[in-house]
Amino acid sequence: MRPNGHWNTRFYTRAFPYASETVALLGGNGNPGAATIGSRHIRFQHASYDHHVSLGYSPQFIAQTGVGRMVVEMRTTWLGQASAGMGIRSNSWLVHAQGKSFSTAHRLETLSGTPIALVELCLVAVDMQSRRATPVPDFLPAQARAGANTPENIAGSA
């Protein structure tokens, strides 16, 4: 939570998956991945945050412009299994950026490339003073149109 009392992107991308894992544990059925809950979700949260920074949405940009971002929807699609202790990686890309919103996708996969999950985030650009949606920064639509950060291009460069 930010010092001003508002939840931010980091909180949402960490809290909701963590909460779903906690609910699964409380159901009494056990969960073999429980020992790694914190590290798994913190790793994804960092991957999502790092991707947004790589697009140009850095803490410095936010401080200079006053334009932040907030998650309005997060969707996780299960695609396959990953056994305990298995290495995973995340490929992230900008799906669209238009008007006041943008979306990113993050494909989690094994080190051999087998898909595990797809996490999609829809975000809005926010004027941090007024706390109202504002047009996305110019660099986002330009990158979305260029299509340089798509799964195909990421896979081709690996």
Topology as a string of helices (H) and strands (E): HHHEEEEEHH
Would you state the CATH class? Alpha Beta
CATH architecture: Roll
The largest pleated sheet is described as: 5 strands, antiparallel
- SS summary, helix count: 5
Question: Uncertain runs with pLDDT below 50, 5 residues or more?
Answer: 22-29, 34-42, 154-158
Name given to the CATH homologous superfamily: Hotdog Thioesterase
Number of strands: 5
% residues in beta strands: 25-35%
End-to-end C-alpha gap? 35 Å
The secondary structure category is alpha+beta
Mean pLDDT: 74
The tally of structural domains comes to: 1
Would you tell me which CATH topology applies? Thiol Ester Dehydrase, Chain A
Rg calc = 17 Å
Query: Helical content, roughly?
Result: 25-40%
Q: What is the 3D form?
A: elongated
InterPro entries: HotDog_dom_sf
Question: What brief labels describe this structure?
Answer:
158 residues; 5 helices; HotDog_dom_sf; alpha+beta; five-stranded antiparallel beta sheet; Thiol Ester Dehydrase, Chain A; elongated
